[in-house]
Amino acid sequence: MKRYSTITILVLFLAASLAVAGERTHQIEAEDYFSIAALTGIALSPDGTTAAWTESRWSKEDDGRQTELWSMDLERREPKRLTFEGMGPSGIRFSRDGRSIYFSASDGDGNSQIWRIESAGGNPKKLTSVSDGIDLWDLSADENVLVYTISTDQTDDEWKDLRDTYSDLEYGHGVTSFSEVHSLDLKTWRTRTVFDGKKVIRSLDLSADGTLAALATTQDNELVHNEGWSSVEVLDIASGEITLVTTDGWRSSHDSPFGWIDGVAMADDGKALAFTVGFDGFPTLVYTAKPGNTAWAISEQKRPQDVSIAGGSIGWKPGSHILIYNGDSHARVRLFGQAIGGTGNILTSGDTVIGGHAFNADGSTLLVSSGALDSPQDLYLVDSDGILERVSRINPQIDDWILPSIEIVKWTAPDGAQVEGILELPPGWTKADGPLPLIVEIHGGPTAATHLQLRFWIYGRTLLPAKGYALLSPNYRGSTGYGDQFMTQLVGHENDIEVKDILAGVDAMIERGIADPDRLGVMGWSNGGFLTNALIAATTRFKAASSGAGTLDQVLQWAVEDTPGHVINFMGAALPWQNPEHYVKGSPLYGLASVTTPTLIHVGGNDPRVPPAHSRGLYRALKIYLDVPTELVVYPGAAHGLRTYTHRKAKMAWDLAWFEKYLGVGWGQEVAE
Q1: Which structural domain range is residue 72 located in?
Q2: Which residue, of 77, 97, 597, 630, has the greatest Cβ tally within 10 A?
């Protein structure tokens, strides 16, 4: 009852007004992070009058997030919660009359099923009852056919008998979770098996009439098989026949053989499909394919200058062959529309950081989620000039928070390259107040970027500036959004060119009177953790570091991570025995002898991407052999990202305490008694 009462109050607060509150009085604390709701998916009714979205909120009692479904009449602007008790809806889409919403969610036993609920509210109806649940699904436009996949484990090699006899053991290969495709007729409620061959289906998208499905497939469910061994295929729903779209040799023109297919999108008429191919270290490529007399003909599409396409964001404008995707450029993310063979037009203007998008049935109304400098992502309608009109206030509590200032800063690297970053400063600080303790916060990837928006997260943004520290988030060489050359210059130069980029940014902040050279810190997670390790090995100027899930040795990383193509790409396309010197040069391990920086180390206990051996090795080197102040924090059961309330709260608490101890308290903060 207590949880329901809290939600009721929130709904009343949301419905009261979309007007921003006046004076900001609330000093941000770590606990405020857990009040922020995140938009995880959006949809728009066919007539464009009703929006729906999934919203994820933290639950201390459940030690994690709970996701629920909401809807809103866009004229009245009154949000309405549709699901309760942590159903975890996703993949939302409206019925053709707009009166119902389909979604996948838990059935209470941990299995994902398909549900339908009235968009005005009511009790959700479960449409499937599949043992062990469904994986992927899609719905025909007329709502007659629901297509979904399930996974079935199969053992098929010369050691099958032994594997089956000792099935409780873990094997490196030989047991594969293949995908079956099923079709449910929503008029007769009869289910039939469409396809049960030996393929792993990673993405599925139906044509509007439900006759064809575009698929991204691999031959094995281990993630490594998605790196260079994935394919695009088309499934005929009536016959079960599969046609290969990406035939042999289609990857021959790529900069790297280790590209993964992020997703596929089938045009409404079934006469075109699109997909993106992502890489570590190289630009994401966009392909379209059209059916020919004997095969689908694929062609690579041009990309706008200095725009990196966000993998998995590709889609089609309803009823057309206009591609829609998110384009990352100079710390902004804008929505683009592009005809096949065209160059791309910006659909959203201004300093937007677009998340998701949704059109109405005829493509005349566009709804997006976007971040801003004074709020996390909210819902916006987009007019014909690309101007955004805010229609929701998902996080009204932020209206009275005292926010940091956020701006783009630029500097010149030693080789003359122009580098940018995001600088966050404590509220009210001016240069007259004197230089600040500066913490360099480094994004992961490295094929990613830090964007110009308010982002409160566990890796430093918002919280550290609120605590009186300047925070510099550099978009170093290898980052997205600055052109192909800027990105690919990092290939073959890890632990070198980007380290110099970052240190030049620190120098620029000191020269501009922002940073105190005697109070410098550095932190990051994943590739940001790797660069934290690299920086403390390269210089003693940092007085404190927080290294999260960071690579220490590139040979070890190639051997144990779940996406080894990442390492091969950055190590100049060489395997460890082909160019061992390059692997040594790219590894912070061999520079640890000079480290003096007190270092806090975080890692998930079950991290498959940067396994804990790196963090344990760094801890051993610094603590046992080099006598550097060091703490190791292992989060039991956690993978590459921290997911629980407890773990995220602990991460922020440790970081704040560590930087306060070694950098002192931030500007405007009182020393604890």
Answers
A1: 36-134
A2: 597
